[in-house]
Amino acid sequence: MITALCVFKFLFHVLYFSIIYLYTKAMAGLETNSTGCLPIDDYIKAYYLPVMYSIISVVGLVGNFLVIIIYLAKLRPWKSSSIIMVNLAVADLLYALSLPVLVQFYVTTHWNLGELMCRFIRFCFYYNLYGSILFLTCLSIFRYVAVVHPLKAAEIRRKRWAILACLAVWAISLMEIGPMLGMITVQQKDNMTKYAFVFI
Fold first, then answer.
1. Bridge partners, 187 (sequence order)
2. What's the CATH fold of domain 39-195?
3. Where in the numbering of this chain does the G-protein coupled receptors family 1 profile domain appear (predicted)?
């Protein structure tokens, strides 16, 4: 427990000083801008996304890892909602794992990992994002049936329905995101790999 608190405190300090650094850098950029007009997309990519993705990554990694451990170690017997919740936590954990690479890209604006990793990171980002949304939808449908149709609740609490729903969610997410693999590539600009997400 003490180790976890120390790690959390360390991550909080790293995040805090990163935000201070990015804020200082943003303010310096605003002072040197002579036109008074902000290139909002560049500022969002350079300052907002790295900070937000860092926060989401830290909270998502710690929180979802703890949820998975608790569900696997402590919760028995598993019901349909438990199975969906574990799959939701896995999707969120995989989503959070893709964020540090994107933070590094947005801060440096250079992609050093090659085209295969570019496709893989963006695929993981969107695949697990869509999966999380669909798992929340599944959970809402299961809860709706349990509240509005209480006689059918016993049937829907069976593991079989949750497993089928989770398999369907992973498959639907794959079908939604699959075509994106052909549209993601890197782009060379000024002899440097600049952009990691380009629709062709």
1. 195
2. Rhopdopsin 7-helix transmembrane proteins (1.20.1070)
3. 63-200
